[in-house]
Design a protein that fits this description.
Radius of gyration: 14 Å
Number of helices: 3
Strand order of the largest sheet: 1-6
CATH architecture of the domain at 30-87: 2-Layer Sandwich
Length: 94
């Protein structure tokens, strides 16, 4: 029996990305230690460091779990809200 990975399960979700209104906004020049918390903890891996070590962030694959808001809502996450109606993640099971 083969095991299904988390990445495989998440890959069936559908995303409607709101290009006009990002639902998560991160402050410019974010504190490195705070950003690295999110690199480690974000289940969708939205917070990363590029090959040069510079922080990168993309809200497009957000699972809307609120982990970043809970961990860094008072520090580097400037704005966190659920996406506008009909936008965001639609979970698919199968």
């Amino acid at each position: 029996m083969s095991m299904t990975t988390v990445d495989e399960k998440l890959s069936v979700n559908k995303y409607a990305v709101d290009e006009e209104v990002p639902h998560i906004v991160v402050v410019r020049d974010a504190d490195a230690a705070e950003f690295d918390k999110l690199v480690t903890c974000c289940p969708a891996a939205l917070y990363q460091r590029d090959e040069d070590g510079a922080p990168t962030f993309d809200y497009a694959g957000c699972l809307e779990c609120g982990t970043c808001r809970i961990l860094c809502g008072g520090t580097i996450v400037e704005r966190w809200a659920y996406p506008r109606g009909s936008m965001g993640v639609s979970y698919r099971f199968g």
